[in-house]
UniProtKB/TrEMBL annotation:
GO BP terms in the entry: animal organ development
Cysteine pairings via disulfide bonds: 42-51, 265-274
A GO term for molecular function: calcium ion binding
Phylogenetic lineage: Eukaryota, Metazoa, Ecdysozoa, Arthropoda, Chelicerata
Lineage: superkingdom: Eukaryota
Encoding gene (name): AGRN_18
Residue ranges of every copy of the Laminin G domain listed in the record: 63-254
Record key words, sorted: Disulfide bond, EGF-like domain, Repeat
Pfam families xref list: EGF, Laminin_G_1
Name used for this protein in its record: Agrin
Keyword Magnesium: no
Classification via SMART domains: EGF, EGF_CA, LamG
One cellular component term from this protein's GO annotations in UniProt: membrane
Domain annotation EGF-like: ranges: 15-52, 239-275
């Protein structure tokens, strides 16, 4: 008898660890899920189901980090292909212990399915409802005010996962038997318009007071978010570390990497700070 996938033993009674074969590339962290499934938590510079895709290690390739003032927001079309599964990663800094990082609902009146990522008293919370009960998953460690953090959320059917800074993975699942996340409204980042009613079960109703360096949705890096947003309010370029003014010389562009950075040099210059000329002396 050939055992079913993910099981072994004469009667397929032994459940195998789906991470035992080390399926994740580039030193990524493998997280075992139910039903012999797994999820790869990719380090900076990689993406994909198995972290097999190489990406730029920097933040937004435009070099523009966006500043949110607490009443700001960016609007985008509904999260794509989110019915059965979803993966989102955000690099952010906050100046406040409370704030909304992400929200997408089903209906304009605040009822129906939704998914949200919030800061509540300094702790990240992933909250979602598929129509039969709300799941709330909270990080065990608080954020540091003024520091850059990465947060990864994923959802497969009714199961969710939340991870900050490649630390401990926190898991949970929504109640009931419904397994699809049905969304119909725009996706909001950093806050929502004043007229938009949020899901009543969301405790946090204020926007992010901080900044966002990078966003990855289903392994797609969203560079230059400002240019392809469908609406926006009170968004400005962020000026602050790690890309302090003048850190990259000779018209080099500073690309933030959480609390680090790299300089993208123009032709004729190289080095960490673009301070080395590559022109040969004549």
């Amino acid at each position: 008898m050939i055992p079913d996938s993910g099981k072994e033993g004469r009667h397929c009674e032994i459940q195998l660890d789906p991470c035992a074969s080390e399926p994740c590339s580039y030193g990524a962290t493998c997280m075992s899920l139910q039903e012999s499934k797994f999820s790869c938590s990719c380090p900076p510079g990689s993406a994909g189901e198995f972290c097999e895709l190489e990406t730029s290690e920097g933040g937004d390739e435009s070099g523009i980090t966006l500043d949110f003032k607490g009443d700001s927001y960016l609007e985008f079309p509904t999260l794509p292909n989110a019915a059965h599964s979803l993966r989102v990663e955000i690099w952010f800094m906050t100046r406040s212990l409370n704030g909304l990082l992400l929200y997408n609902g089903q209906k304009p009146n605040g009822v129906g399915d939704f998914i949200a990522l919030t800061l509540l008293n300094g702790f990240l919370h992933l909250t979602y409802n598929l129509g039969s009960g709300t799941a709330t998953i909270a990080c065990l460690e608080p954020v540091r005010i003024g520091a850059w953090h990465s947060v990864k959320i994923s959802r497969i059917k009714n199961r969710g996962m939340l991870q900050m800074d490649n630390g401990e993975v926190v898991r949970g699942q929504s109640k009931g038997t419904l397994l699809e996340l049905n969304l119909g409204e725009p996706l909001y980042i950093g806050g929502v318009p004043e007229f938009l009613p949020l899901k009543y079960s969301l405790v946090v109703q204020v926007g992010l007071d901080g900044a966002i360096q990078r966003m990855i949705v289903n392994d797609e890096v969203w560079d230059d978010m400002l240019s392809f947003s469908t609406d926006q309010r009170n968004i400005e370029p962020y000026n602050g570390p790690p890309c302090t003014p003048g850190i990259c010389k000779n018209n080099g562009r500073c690309i933030p990497i959480l609390e680090d950075y790299r300089c993208q040099c123009v032709d004729g210059f190289s080095g960490k700070w673009c301070n080395q000329s590559t022109f040969k002396n004549r």
